[in-house]
Amino acid sequence: MExxxxxxxxxxxxxxxPSHKKELASxxxxxxxxxxxxxxxxxxxxxxxxxxxEDAAFGGSGCAISQASADMMCDLxxxxxxxxxxxxxxxxxxxxxxxxxxxxxxxxxxxxxLQNIAHMPARVKCAVLGWRTMSEMIGKLNAEExxxxxxxxxxxxxxxxxxxxxxxxxxxxxxxxA
Length: 178
Fold this sequence. Notes:
Elements: H1 3-16, E1 29-35, E2 40-49, E3 52-61, H2 64-77, H3 82-97, H4 102-106, H5 121-150, H6 158-161
Antiparallel strand pairs: 1-2, 2-3
């Protein structure tokens, strides 16, 4: 089987039978990612506890590349630390830009099937949508944790951005669901 055909099959499998296209019961954070040029619209959800991404899921609609990329990304980041997830996102972006090393590309597992997407500029935004959304989410979580560490007596602040949230470790206000 030709390598291009294998890559197409990987993308098709993740698009047609995504493992992570579902709703999570109590996500820590939810964020919408939109690619207006293609009509992609995803709602990424993460459950993060003690800095580890325990689960990830997405909903929404979009082209095969955006949906497959989001599903492959979820496969990779579940069970990883926030820092590792950001590292993987950096590796993915580097791969798309053509400046990732072979070792960095290997860390991407099936997501490496999207390596040649850079040759289709109109599809690059589709492929990176989930990854950019996840990176933004982790940035928001890190900012909230930093704010909570600075003034723990005022609560962790998660409630203000997500009513279904669970308080951050160390939050003493009990503002969120236990």
